[in-house]
Amino acid sequence: MALQTREQHIKRDKATSNICTAQVLLAVMAGMYGVYHGPRGLKFIANKLHSQTATLADAIEKLGIYQTNENFFDTLSFKVDAEAVKKEALALEINFYYPDAETVQVSLNETTSLTDLNDVVSAFAKAVNKDFSPITNLLESTHLGTGRQTDFMTYEVFNSYHSETELMRYIKKLERKDLALNHSMIALGSCTMKLNAAAEMLPLSNPQWGNIHPFAPIDQAQGYQEMLKKLELQLNEATGFAGTSLQPNSGAQGEFAGLMAIRAYHHSRGDHHRDICLIPSSAHGTNPASAVMAGMKVVVTKALENGNIDVDDLREKALQYKDNLSALMVTYPSTHGVYESAIKEITGIIHENGGQVIWTVQI
What dihedral do alpha carbons 225, 228, 233, 234 form, nearest 10°? Predict the structure, then answer.
């Protein structure tokens, strides 16, 4: 992630990736998970998880239900009447995956308990009208196959901070090296560097909000559907747009989605040749990277000393490429924290020359 970030800011129009805060946060969380557990902790978790999976496979196979995965780690696939199992599983408030009418797939994770395992076996046992002996002990990991023989995560950082206190101090040490709004003013007006209020962050830790499984059945997520639909309608009203997509999970992916929509618009009109994207030199590094990912050619326009777009240079470039102009990307307010006073004129220039305008907003 760090290398990709540097690539998009240094290479810009030659970058091959576009990432931003929302994606980096996931990488940081995964990295800190590795720092806290280290190689020994990860091995312990993996062995326990696989033992649970092997134990579950053995218990369900004793019911006469065939497990089809020759090798497995945490996921099992059973040949059985899927509808019968689903009925019993839902009664126990358990969701399995049902790829077809004769297959049920079950995945475990490190939070799975013996009680959970017995509930799973119970659902299968009831589906085939058989009794089962409750699981009391885990089997050895016998289905794992060839294990890794080489060392991994050998860096000191993965072998040093294995208590809550040690990890907290390590994270604080890293924080002190960073330039942040709680210590200084940041010249770069990027969304990455804003200071979020505790009131904004607190709801994210609410289990009623954050514990939904991404593949949960729609009829079990009606509250989310209502909330998201309401947000879409509110955004439609605020922007005047006919529709709003909540699909992109980061600003960089939002840029990419917008550019792909513009690309599709031109293609729908037979203008397949329109592939030039104008981007001010002051733009965030994700902008040219997103344009390249969308199959466009980047042409950089000048910015004035105060950070505003150089309208004269923009007009010159728009006229020069009018036959192939696809879009202009405008960061509003700009990365310098400036609102473009000539935004209406800028938008008009692009529209007059056959292009569309995508605004990327710094919030």
Answer: 140
